[in-house]
Design brief:
The protein has 257 residues and is of the alpha/beta class. It has a single domain, classed as Carbon-nitrogen hydrolase (Nitrilase/N-carbamoyl-D-aminoacid amidohydrolase). It is 26% helix and 29% strand. The protein has 6 helices and 14 strands. α4 runs parallel beside α5. The radius of gyration is 17 Å and the shape is globular.
């Protein structure tokens, strides 16, 4: 099975260019699963300390519009997060899209929210319910850990105990913290016994110097199978979900709480 991670620019013009290139890459590689960055289809809202309801509504509309463009990738399964509004509340919601039904199936709402310059997320949207529930897809059992959630490794362990084979970790993280985040991704893979996939923003937008550095990490020893870069913004690897199943029977995954 082939999985693809990426780094995409966070401005409309750059995104359009990157999207065309990503679609070409995914089709050429015949990828089965593509992971996109965190809320990828609108400029990063939480960069501003001042909450703008109109901007949030624009982000919701943008993500709904881009939903109709996911078939351009040619991948059977796409993992992503979107800005949503429900009953007057705002959420950052992880979803699974499949070519089979062409709908967005909500899976998880981000619940660990930073509150600091560039990442005023706790004031922009509400916390999810704290449920980290696996989702069965045509290409494996998936669990979302959206950006900051990666640092709460108890959920990675719980995902492993529930048979998750892929941890989707979409991010919006900046330089120079790339190595730290990659270390977190490796820990997620080792703790869960699942492949950890991450995609991120790249480039410079409104003073934000995004880190890029998407990755694919294997589940046994946390070996990095590959990373993205400015020169190679897309990465596809052939993985074996049976490796994730076997990893759960080996150290340290089998050790009980």
């Amino acid at each position: 099975m082939k999985v693809t991670v990426c780094e995409l620019r966070n401005d409309p013009e750059g995104l359009e260019q990157d999207w065309s290139a990503l679609a070409e890459h995914v089709r050429a590689e015949a990828s089965d699963v593509v992971l996109l960055p965190e809320m990828p289809f609108y400029p990063w809202l939480a960069a501003s300390r001042e909450v703008d309801a109109g901007a949030w509504a624009d982000s919701v509309r943008a993500h709904e519009a881009w939903l109709g463009r996911l078939p351009e990738l040619g991948a059977p399964t796409v993992l992503w997060t979107a800005a949503v509004i429900e009953a007057g509340q705002h959420f950052n919601e992880g979803s699974v899209w499949t070519a089979e039904d062409r709908t967005r199936r909500p899976v998880h709402r981000k619940c660990y929210l930073p509150e600091e310059p560039g990442f005023w997320e706790a004031r922009w949207y509400e916390r999810g319910d704290g449920q980290f529930t696996p989702s069965d897809t045509p290409h494996g059992r998936v669990g979302f850990m959206i950006c900051t959630e990666m640092w709460f490794q108890q959920h990675a362990r719980a995902y492993g105990q529930q048979g998750v084979q892929l941890i989707a970790a979409p991010r919006a993280t900046m330089k120079p913290s790339g190595d730290k985040w990659l270390a977190g991704g490796r820990a997620c893979a080792v703790v869960s016994g699942a492949y950890c996939l991450s995609s991120n923003f790249a480039g410079n937008t409104d003073g934000g110097d995004w880190a890029g550095l998407g990755w694919i990490v294997e589940p046994e020893e946390g070996e990095v199978l590959g990373t993205t870069s400015g020169d190679q913004p897309f990465l596809t690897c052939d993985i074996d979900l049976a490796v994730a199943d076997t990893a759960k029977t080996t150290y340290p995954r089998y050790v009980c709480d």
